[in-house]
Amino acid sequence: MRIWSLHPRYLDAKGLVACWRETLLAQKVLDGKTTGYRNHPQLARFRAGGEPLALIGAYLEGIAAQADARAYRFNRSLILRPPTGVVPLMTVTTGQLDHERVHLLAKLAVRSPERLTAVPAAPARPDPHPLFSAVPGPVEPWEVVSSAG
After folding, report:
1. Domain that holds residue 63
2. Number of domains observed in the structure of the chain
């Protein structure tokens, strides 16, 4: 499961659809409607926010807004707790954004090389998903980092 901290505008079509579907699964987990993925590390940040279903709903809304911008049709009725006003921003570290940029660039190089230029090159940092505000720091503790980086 990959719930990107990066702004969804950087994702290719496959990545955007996968993010939508995987976040819907995460929403189901947070709602207690499935037994799989209950301990998935990426869910820790939504649980820590105090209102996990509201936060994941705001995250899904950000993905759906990007789908709208591309004239895709994502079914917003699947969002259990859509945002109804101002949602407090969650934080994400700059180290996490940098880590995800490298991960996304590797994916895009294989399946959508034309999208590589959409992702800012280092030292510029990509924007976070609209639910997040970036704060200085290393890769997030919930991120699973392989020995290959």
Report:
1. 8-135
2. 1
The answer to whether residue 129 is domain-embedded is: yes
Residue 145 resides in a domain: no
3 is a domain residue = no
pTM above 0.90, yes or no: yes
Read off the pLDDT of residues 7-16 as tens digits, 9 standing for 90 and up: 999 999 999 9
What digits encode the pLDDT tens for the residues 43-76? 989 998 789 999 999 999 999 999 999 999 999 9
Q: How wide is the angle at C-alpha 132 spanned by C-alphas 64 and 38, nearest 5°?
A: 75
As given in the structure block, the two tokens for residue 44 are 């820790």
Question: Could you tell me if residue 140 is inside a domain?
Answer: no
Give one DSSP letter per residue of 70-107, joined into a string. Answer: TT----GGG-SS---SPPPPEEEEHHHHHHHHHHHHHH
Distance of CA 52 to the CA centre of its chain: 14
Q: Residue type for 44, please?
A: A
